[in-house]
Design goal:
The structure is a single chain. 67% of the residues lie in helices and 0% in strands. The chain is mostly helical and 97 residues long.
């Protein structure tokens, strides 16, 4: 990599212009719109990919929480059923039960 020299300030390459203030030809305006469209497409494809990945991650998290919640409830219900079974097997302690 050679020495990096800053561009000359008078260089017409990649200088910012305001199309509303400067008089540009139709070809120049068309070219500007084409470049802007290509940049927009590039940005949106990256953003779309990022959004899909984020959506899948959130969906996986929600699904995992739901599955854990169902398993936790089943485990608690099994424990309650076993306690009820044990209580029935022990029989009534008094005549009132």
């Amino acid at each position: 990599m050679a020495d990096k020299k800053p561009l000359k300030s008078g260089s017409p390459f990649a200088t910012r212009i305001d199309p509303t203030k400067e008089s540009l030809s139709k070809e120049q305006m068309h070219f500007i719109k084409q470049v802007e469209l290509e940049q927009w497409k590039k940005k949106t494809s990256k953003l779309r990919t990022r959004n899909v990945v984020t959506g899948l991650a959130i969906g996986a998290l929600v699904l995992g929480i739901c599955i854990l919640n169902v398993n936790w409830k089943e485990r608690i219900m099994d424990e309650i059923d076993e306690e009820a079974k044990r209580a029935r097997l022990q029989g009534p302690k008094t005549g009132a039960n």
